[in-house]
Amino acid sequence: VWRVRFGIVADCQYADADRAGTERYYRQSLAKLEDAVRVFNSQRLSFVVSLGDLVDRHTQDAGPVHDVLAELTAPVLHLLGNHDLLATDGDLPAALSMLGMAEPYYSRTHPGLRMIFLNTNEDSALVERRGSQTWEWRVAELAARAEAGEVNARRWNGAVGEAQLVWLRRELARAADVGQRVVVSQHGPVAPLSEHTTLNADEVLATLDGGATLWAVFAGHHHRGSFVVRRGIPHLTFQGMVQTPENAFAVVTVERDHLVVEGYGRETSRRLHYPSADARRST
Question: What confidence tier does 275 reach under pLDDT thresholds 50, 70, 90?
Fold first, then answer.
């Protein structure tokens, strides 16, 4: 009987800065992350996933966070967040280097499981140098979309590019061919619709619908978190660690017929069963 266990943190967003009102407690993120690392190290985990936004605004703030993560006994798999790009003024190679990532999207396989990690900031103003002509064009496009009533037409959101969608379809097909369960993780959620939803969420969802063995979709970005089931697939947005004085992280256990999210702090614990074919066909 196989099982895969891993840790989840979202939006650590550390900064050596005062808190923003009653919402974001930037300096406290280091102590919160230390608590999470202690819990992770007390359990047998295959890896730990950081769902993006490791830092809030400066690349130099990554050093203290990496020092904490270095205490982990399991490897860390990173996702690229919008604040990670803000810290590097849209310089993608610099952001990847800061996070220790070899590529902006990728997959990893474990016995019976394929983990897919998407880059939801691929097409956006975030990857352009602020004030550049391309940045101005993307900002104007977002303004037009917002004027047309698109609630997620915000500068902090991005989109998944066409080449990445082709790659995603291929990864989902490969997993189905060998009978692997699939968990997709990304920084920006694709469901439900909100001001934090990925700009081309409909395209991503249409691609995910082709995943015959897709089990769950995890995201960060929206610090208050959310949970919705679409076509039998749970979409779970984890709560941001930086938000409020209380911590938030989780340990996920994947088995053949169910998935358990053990939440800590503000994060809710859940038990999710593998979706049936009838549930997948429902709208």
Answer: confident
Q: Which is it for strands 226-230 and 214-219: parallel, antiparallel or unpaired?
A: unpaired
Instruction: Please classify residue 66 by burial: count the beta carbons closer than 10 Å to its beta carbon, then call 0-12 exposed, 13-18 middle and 19+ buried.
Output: middle
211 vs 81: CA distance, rounded Å: 24
Higher pLDDT, 20 or 273: 273
Residue identified by tokens 């969420």 is: 201
Residue 129 scores a pLDDT above 70: yes
| Cα–Cα distance, 160 to 119 (Å, whole number) | 6
Mean pLDDT of 143-160: 97
Question: Which helix (DSSP H) or strand (DSSP E) does residue 114 occupy?
Answer: strand 113-117
Q: Collapsing DSSP states into helix, strand and coil, what is residue 55?
A: strand
Residue 148 has pLDDT above 80, yes or no: yes
Residue 201 CB coordination number (10 Å) = 21
pLDDT at 282: 62
On the 0-12 / 13-18 / 19+ scale of CB atoms within 10 A, 84 is buried
Q: Give yes or no for a contact between 228 and 235, defined as CB atoms under 8 angstroms apart.
A: yes
- Separation between Cα atoms, residue 122 and residue 178, nearest integer Å: 29
Say what the pTM is.
Answer: 0.96
C-beta neighbour count of 20 within 10 angstroms: 12
Supply the DSSP string of 211-239, one letter for each residue: -TTEEEEEE-SSTT-EEEEETTEEEEEPP
Residue 271 DSSP one-character state: E
Pairing, β 214-219 against β 181-186 = parallel
CB-based contact 240:248 (threshold 8 Å):
yes
Sign of CA dihedral 107, 109, 110, 112: positive
Summarize pLDDT for 165-218 with one digit per residue, the tens: 999 999 999 999 999 999 999 999 999 999 999 999 999 999 999 999 999 999
Token pair listed for 165: 């969608």
